[in-house]
């Protein structure tokens, strides 16, 4: 649980439903023009894909300003790949080019990989049909990898170094699955066709071998994108009017429509969430770039409008925020200076939580303002710990931050 001091120091405002302001950086590239940030862990490491000088895109891990090329199985100069997931322990998973042979001719085919500092790139689906591609989409801190492909029948699967590959069977479905992500509790989320020709989202528990089907918004077409450690899932679901809407599936089995940024939005998808149920995603309108957003306590906010620096805000259009961690760091894909396909990292800006009047100092005016808010029960100011109440914990929490100064 965050301390009262942490809640005040971060301008995240999640307790009051207000978004933070952000700084943004371009993650760079591997010598080419395009790069995509696809996942982020709690340490702020990013996994993704970036172009080399000769167009080929390679998987990368970005850490503290350095982008590391993870390579590929094949040594062919055109061999590429993508890192789609990174765990809190720094493990990565994705797909990379692999050398195979068809009718006596060499070919490149995508194969799922697991990566760690200790092992390097490890093929997850060895010994299977050489002409079936495979790709990993998620990995957790204990090394469970999830993905699709490489198996006859098209089943989703999960893999560990000790036990190898195991298919995931979903009730009412003969195959054709796509596992998207796995949390640190070993819960996998994905989507697939059922034998009744419905396209459903699901959650599968690797510990119990049990699965549950996620509800929809009125039409049997749902796709998932991410799962947090509590088992909450986000993605999109189609309404009875055939509109794709961004949704949250809480772990209790319900479904929440996240709404739309404005009435012109035609379709929407939620791409990532953290353990506080803060969600990022994209809304799309006709003839315009996609609009990236952050959802906090029932309301969506356009992300590029939360960039604090004027010059940076003018340079960026955030089109596809894809992942968010508990520190409110966000990665994804945006347009920078009219160049599409740039990977970014957005970091919430810290401020002095005791400075209630915004003059850059914690002084008597701020202290008496807090006393007034506390006396009147103004939750937007006095509720330091976010429990929807103004009590002694909030008062002493503010005193601690005020004493620390700005």
Structure description:
The chain is globular, with a radius of gyration of 23 Å. The chain folds into two domains: 1-20 and 353-406, no CATH class; 79-307 and 319-327, TolB, C-terminal domain (Neuraminidase). The chain is 10% helix and 44% strand. The strands form seven sheets. Strands 1-28-27-26 form a four-stranded antiparallel sheet. It is mainly beta and 406 residues long. A hairpin with a 3-residue loop joins β8 (105-116) and β9. The chain has helices spanning 4-9, 310-315, 364-376, 379-382, 392-404; strands spanning 22-26, 35-40, 46-51, 57-63, 66-69, 81-86, 92-102, 105-116, 120-123, 134-139, 145-149, 156-160, 164-168, 177-182, 187-193, 199-205, 210-213, 218-227, 233-239, 244-249, 256-257, 267-273, 279-284, 291-296, 299-302, 316-324, 330-336, 339-348. The longest helix is centred in the C-terminal third of the chain and has 13 residues, at 364-376. The protein is built from five helices and 28 strands.
